[in-house]
Every structure is written in C-alpha cells, then in structure tokens.
Amino acid sequence: MAKQExxxxxxxxxxxxxxxxxxxxxxxxxxxxRHLLGFDNKRxxxxxxxxxxxxxxxxxxxxxxxxPEISIEIIEMSEFKYKIIIEDNGxxxxxxxxxxxxxxxxYGSKFHTLKQARGQQGIGISAAVLxxxxxxxxxxxxxxxVSKKEPAFYYELNIDTQSxxxxxxxxxxxxWAKEHGTKVELDLEAEYLKGSQSVDEYLKQTAVIxxxxxxxxxxxxxxxxxxxxxxxxxxxxxxxxxxxPYGIELGMLMDKLRWTESRTLQSFLxxxxxxxxxxxxxxxxxxxxxxxxxxxxxVSRDAAEKLLQGIQKTKIIAPPTDCLSPIGExxxxxxxxxxxxxxxxxxTSRPPxxxxxxxxxxxxxxxxxxxxxxxxxxxxxxxxxxxxxLYQEGACAMTRxxxxxxxxxxxxxxxxxxxxxxxxxxxxxxxSVWVPFTSESKxxxxxxxxxxxxxxxxxxxxxxxxxTYVRKKGRISxxxxxxxxxxxxxxxxxxxxxxxxxxxxxxxxxxLQKMLVKPEIKKEIIEEDADDRLYKMExxxxxxxxxxxxAG
Length: 552
Fold this sequence. Notes:
The structure is a single chain. By secondary structure, the chain is of the alpha+beta class. The chain has four domains: 27-227, Heat Shock Protein 90 (2-Layer Sandwich), CATH 3.30.565; 245-313, Helicase, Ruva Protein, domain 3 (Orthogonal Bundle); 329-467, Ribosomal Protein S5, domain 2 (2-Layer Sandwich); 469-551, no CATH class. It is 42% helix and 18% strand. α13 crosses α14 (449-488) and α15 crosses α16. It is globular, with a radius of gyration of 30 Å.
C-alpha cells in the first residue's frame, strides 16, 4: 500500500496537466474574444451586425449580376435591445447551405479565392449571429429563396459553440413575395446613436462608394432614408486568379508541393501560380539548381528554400488585374456628387500595383466647398473593397498617406504631421484580392510601404486639380471684389462727371454700369477646369501605358 502511494506521489505533474488540455473550437474562442471581431461595445455591435449582413448582400447581388436593392430596418424592442432586419434581392442561398453560412464560423467561399470581394474570412455574418445569441439567447431567423419556381425556406438557427456547428431550432417552408433573395433577422444587445461611427454614417458612405446600389433604411425612430442608385452599371465582374510567385512564403510553398497533383516541378510551377509559363518555370528551376522533372513530393525543405530563392532571382510579370473591380473615376465622382453637397469634385484611379504578390488599385476623390464646414479638420472617408472603414482611423495606412501628403500647395491649411484643415472631404479606396487588415474586425489597413506610396500619389493627383480650382476661385473673387468696390462709387463718379461735362447724371450712370462686368465665378472655373481635366486624361493615359510596359 505504501509502495503504491509512493508511486502515485512520484507520478510527474505533466500527466495531470495533460488531462486538463483540450481542443478549443473557433466559436468558443470568439465567444470569449468577441472584441477581436469588432463587437467591443453596444453601439459598435449594432454597426457591425448591420455591416456584415449588408456586405454579404452586396457581394451576393454582384456575383449574380443583379442590381442590389437592400432594405435595412432597426427596431428598438426595449432599452439596449434591438431587432435588425436586412432584406435583399440577391440570388438567395441553397437550402442545405443556410445553416452553415449563418451558424458556423470560418465557413465561406471567399477565403481560398483570390479575387476582389467584401468578405474574406468567412467570419462576418456568423459572428453577428454568435453575438446575437450571446446577448439575447434568441436564434437568428433566416428566410431565403433562389427562384420563383422554388419555395422560400425559413430557419431559426443557433451556434453550438463547443463544436462550432449549427443548431437548427426551426425549419419550414413559407410564403414570401420575393422571387429571390435573403432576409436576416437578429435580436441583439445594442445601442443606437447617430454620429460619425453610426449605422447611419455607414449606410451613407456605402451609398457613396457603391453608386449602383439602392438602400432603403428605417432607423429606430421610424425615420426612413432612401439612397437611390446613381448608375445602372454594375461593377466589373472580377475573376479569380492564382497566387503570384513573389507573394509565396516557404511554409506555404512546402504545403503546395505536398498537396499538388502535378507530376513534375515544371508543371507544378505553371499550374499553381499566375504569370508562370513553361519557359519561366524552367528559368526558375535553373536559378534554383533543380531539375524541372523533379517530383514535387520529393522536394525537401532545403530544396524548397532553393526554389524560393530561384523565384526571387527570376523576372516574372506582375500579376493580372482582372481580379480587381475598381470603382473608376467617373462613378466615384458620381457617388460623391450624390451624397455630398460641395462646389468642386474630382476623382482619380491609380494604375495597378503589387504588395507581397497581391495586386491592388488605389482610388481617391475630393469634394471641396459648398456645405462642408470650413474651419474643421478634413472629413476622411476610408474604403476597402467598397466597404466603409469607420473605426481605427489613426492606425490606418490611408490616414498615414493623407497626413504625409503636403496639402498647403493645394489651398488647405496643415500644421506639421497632421490632417489638413478646410472645407474638404477626402476619399481613399483600396481594391485588392487580399486587403491587409490589421485585425479580424477589418477596420484599418496595415502600413505597407507600397500601399502608402500609391495612396500619396493618388492624393497628389487630386490635390493638383483642387489647387488649380482654389487659385482660380481666389483670382475671380478678387475681380468680383474690385468690381463691387467700383460699383459702390459709381453715383459719386457720375455726379462729378455730370458737373464737368454738363451731361445728365442718369445717362452717365447708365454708361458706367454697362462698363461694369462682373465675372461669373462658376462658369469661368468650370470652363477652365475642362482644360485641366483634358490634360489630366492625357497624363493618365501616358502613365498607364508606362505602367503596362514596366509590367512586361
């Protein structure tokens, strides 16, 4: 007996500790760390839930080539308890996919797809369902229909956080007036406030950056706002591409070598990567001192490292950009004109660039004057893949690019390393196959040097047009001021001339008034601005041609 007790006492503590260790599901992890998904507080939680549902609706409509019509209704049930209802006219969701899409985290179609999309990680809408469940205990209610020939399916769903699997509380077929689309209802603990980081602002900015969308929004005070579309033109349909070799890392390369179906290293390189043809693949193998006929499964870690070095030594064409769907200068300016009352607008779209093998395009726009406050900091609107970014402004590469741009030559005040001051709204949009967000909540873009450089170039392009406008406006204002001063003293001048010439004062006054010509400020600036725009178009054409030549 004593011997057994001694053996028990001598058992290493590691065995006891091992019994306590278990696998954690992703749903269980985010249950305790919901702030990582952006559900930091009640006010932000309302915004995030609406945002995730709207983003999904927009992506679905655009993939189905349907002009989006989205209805958002927020109903206050009691203090800090709200119901949100988001309904779209998208393609709907196949019945068996509904539970997984809404009640299983990290389930989606976009994570492994390299093309521009709002969603990336397969977390968004299921995270909103998880938050709803945690704060109210009520299931998410989903109605979806794929065709007028098929019935509409209704689900009430919860998430089993221990296994990250959907729990179906109710399932039935229902009558629904829509021929196709999806409706989401969530009850959640939240707080509704207006302001710069509210649902209202998010939807207004969504209308700016998505001029092809119609949004009908009813807030908790039963006030309805309709954001009508400014164009019937759908965004360019982005196409999926394969990863570019310059963006690959050693561990990822080894995984691809392990799982590929290709039989030779040469065919592996041509089939798994974009912009790699047979000739380029052979050149990579030569630089890596590896035979093109080598079996990928037989490539060791050291050989994979040599292959990676061979890729870096080989000149490879930049990745294709048909995977991107930028807004374009014309539509970005239309979006600004539709939602912001100003006197001057301009927009630009940069040639494609690359970071870590991922293609991206930076677009920028400026609205100046009009109803925009004069003595306040510039209003910055940040967007990534057509989605507004309302939080973590100071941590974003877009804000850094704006601060590092010298705005004084363009007619705005700026002191040191700070945001410019003046009656201006500055818009920056990044379109990319993989936006480098700083966190899972997708609120700020990481400070890649290549991205910041392109942001500054886009802002400088818009800034030059703004500077031209501000200077012309200043000159014409001076002319008007001089004319007004002359007009003020016309009666005295006429009186003096009448005394000298013996002519009637009224006749002299009429002649002087005919001589007085006031410039029409808007007409003159618009006419001169047309010349600037023509110059800008020629400059852009030349710049794009140079970019294409550089890309090969």
